[in-house]
Amino acid sequence: MKLDLELAKKYSRPGPRYTSYPTAPHFSEDIGPAHYATELNDAGTPVTDEFSLYFHLPFCRSLCYFCACNMIITSRREHITDYLNILKQEIDLLSRQINKDRKVSQLHWGGGTPTYLTADEIRDLMSHIRSRFSFTADAEISIEIHPGEMSPERVVAIAESGFNRVSCGVQDFNPKVQAAINRIQPYEVTAEVLELLKSNGIEHFNLDLIYGLPYQTVESFSETLEQVLTLHPSRLAVYNYAYVPWLKKHQNLIDEELLPTPEVKLAMHARIIDYLTSVGGMAFIGMDHFARPEDELALALNNRALHRNFQGYSTKAGLDMYSLGITSISQTYNYYVQNTKLISNYRDMVEGGQLPVERGIRLSEDDHLRRQIIQDIMCQFELDTNKLSANFGIDFRAEFEHEIARLGTFVDDGLLVDEGDKILITENGRLFIRNIAMAFDAYLPRDSRPTTAKQPRYSKTV
User: Is the four-CA dihedral 228, 233, 237, 243 of positive or negative sign?
Assistant: First the structure.
């Protein structure tokens, strides 16, 4: 698979990542705790026997200048203790709303830096979760780690708590790049932590990289890719850096003049895909995700069981995802809801017996249909027009005549093949799936809120 640089220039524009549809900018404060509670208790709402849980642990010891996460920098342990107490109360509130026969098949701790918690805090929180929810025997239980915040005691606590997959941020192993983004994490430290995790029975690792950071070049990032492959990750996510200081003020600490040019970033993107697939032997999952051919993510792609949610690509298709902690976003059949962003509001709502929802959106019939279409594009790399017509009681080609017309440019560029009953995304087309999905996004054409080329709402699609 090769990235055509001319096509990349043509299609590189701001666009959603489609971790949801509709996307988060379209959430409204008209949706609140009562809507979420009604959805959880509505016997008429389709539910699955299994579900996912996400826990947002926002605290970090120090500021990474590139970060776009919802995080809080603190050195005061009492702030973390207070937050964990509120989080456990939210767990109690949510668990009362969920049928006890349903089980957790996927759990993730994100941040922030979840491993900023002490070993005892890790054990205590997971013990509380397990006391309120039942788990499937093969549940995927994952945690994001920062090697700089790992200790032998934390490693043992993670293993004893039942975590079986670890996601580790690397970004770049080049010391000059690390200094520029205030994330000092030598290769040796990362390798030592991963070996310690393996010795405690944790074999599955996701590593996260970022290209487009200060001082990066195609050659320097190639060296990082070589080093990363020696760590034998199960999965890799290689993200295109979104420099958005108008949204994340601390990114102003990065000198924009030091960032690679768009042309260099495109060349880096091409190198990443070529190197990881040809030299690294990894399967290209989609967008920025790669996996070993034997990994569950690659198998899910081959078995047409791939899914996309707020954690990116997932092996658990069709599950409700209940998310806890500030800023976290839950997905049910009819709703997306997001928790409040302020800890003070979070405390008041939870202690008042309310699920701490601040905003969200209820999906219309059209949203349900377009969500399925965009999921099929992003995860299956095809549209089965007959199946969509049957499942939704429509004539797909008549209903989406204008959207199909928009696909003409992708057909002309060899990114799509329209066979009538199926619209197939070619191998090269998979590099531009965000652009293809945007053709079916009803919110983009009618979004009247101001945006400028200098201050886009979304990251670049390529």
Answer: negative
Distance CA 94, CA 41 (A): 11
Res 450 pLDDT > 60: no
Instruction: Answer yes or no: is 347 within a domain.
Output: no
Query: Tokens 């057909």 correspond to what residue?
Result: 411
pLDDT for the residue numbered 448: 41
Confidence label for 242 from pLDDT (cuts 50, 70 and 90):
confident
- Angle between helical axes of 187-199 and 152-160 (0-180°, round to 10): 40
**Please, which residues have CB within 8 angstroms of residue 446's CB and are 6 or more apart in sequence?**
none
Statement to judge: residues 29 and 164 lie in one domain:
yes
Q: Please report, as a single letter, which amino acid is at residue 217.
A: T
Q: Is 35 left (phi over 0), alpha (psi -120 to 50) or beta?
A: alpha
How far is CA 236 from each of CA 206, 277, 384, 457, rounded to the nearest angstrom? 6, 11, 29, 26
Q: Do 416 and 427 meet the contact criterion of CB atoms below 8 Å apart?
A: no
CA 282 vs. chain centroid, Å, equals 20
Domain holding 124, by residue range, is 23-324
Alpha-carbon torsion (276, 279, 280, 284), positive or negative: positive
Number of other CB atoms surrounding residue 301 within 10 Å: 23
Token pair belonging to 122:
């890790």
In terms of DSSP bridges, do strands 235-240 and 165-171 run parallel, antiparallel, or are they unpaired? unpaired
> Residue 333 domain-assigned?
no
What 3-state class would DSSP assign to 220? Answer: helix
